[in-house]
């Protein structure tokens, strides 16, 4: 307990008795009576042979139960095991290589490391670090090609995480890093550690092919990443139809069904091959396992198919569509819960282009805006 606040009252013996109170603050000053603690108590680490001088091997983690001025910064020292000065230890507790290790020369080192706190008098503790030298990487990384589809309102893309590269390596101890060619960094970024792809704001309509690579420190492998950006027109929102699917998650739909269903849907509703099918958004139905897919069809010669026409086409082809995925309902208007005369209602659809939903799988990622339905009875 670092301190106490006492309220003390003095009362006299008069009639009636009078009193007065005062607050006394008692601060408990810390003495340096706790040694630093390593977590874990001892360490094991590996380094591949032929890694360059200065390669990071291990980060030591030290805590101290004393107050801040009696704890960090800590002073780290290698006491034994480093007689040939193969290792260095920086003030932040990072153990690094000071030579280029060879697996044939030595396969293991054991270091005794000391941590000293900043108190007076100083307290110390020790840990042992076992470092194994393993053979250098012999397998190239492998990565899955990634295709990303982004749907956004005209010139209103806010940016954000749009997908993640999935890469593996058969060398157990390889650490993979991801890079993007510099000429594309004005539009996209790639997290070097986990492969997440970030798009910056204001992407134009079109197709982008990214020069991404993954490296294990020895081998560098290119990854096929293609980004398709589609900008919605306001007119699309007035001609949308919703297909509601049963028992499917957004990720499963994107990864397993979207390509096949899009192809089947085109065959079912398009009058001409030149017409364009636009999937505007997919969104889970709150409180259920259902999923809504919002789409519109653009006529090659101009304009859009009317929802009534699309619903008729869908109804006729429903059995064929359900060979791909189970359909719960085909919605143009949704009057559920409204007590409208003869069930007549007016529906408006709004898109929140700054609230993006990203559904990412290993091979395909779909980024779309959140949408909202508003319905009211028609008088």
From TrEMBL:
Superkingdom of source: Eukaryota
Main localization category: membrane
UniProt entry tagged with the keyword Magnesium: no
GO function terms (MF aspect): calcium ion binding
Entry keywords, A to Z: Calcium, Membrane, Repeat, Transmembrane, Transmembrane helix
GO CC annotation: plasma membrane
Transmembrane residue ranges: none
UniProt-listed SMART domains: CA
Gene3D superfamilies, per database record: Cadherins
Protein name per its UniProtKB record: FAT3 protein
GO terms, biological process: homophilic cell adhesion via plasma membrane adhesion molecules
The UniProt record lists the keyword Nucleotide-binding: no
Residue ranges of domain Cadherin in the record: 4-38, 39-143, 154-245
Gene designation: Fat3_1
Subcellular location: Membrane
Pfam families the UniProt entry points to: Cadherin (PF00028)
InterPro entries in the record: Cadherin-like_dom, Cadherin-like_sf, Cadherin_CS
Cross-referenced PANTHER family: FAT ATYPICAL CADHERIN-RELATED, PROTOCADHERIN-LIKE WING POLARITY PROTEIN STAN
SUPFAM superfamilies: Cadherin-like
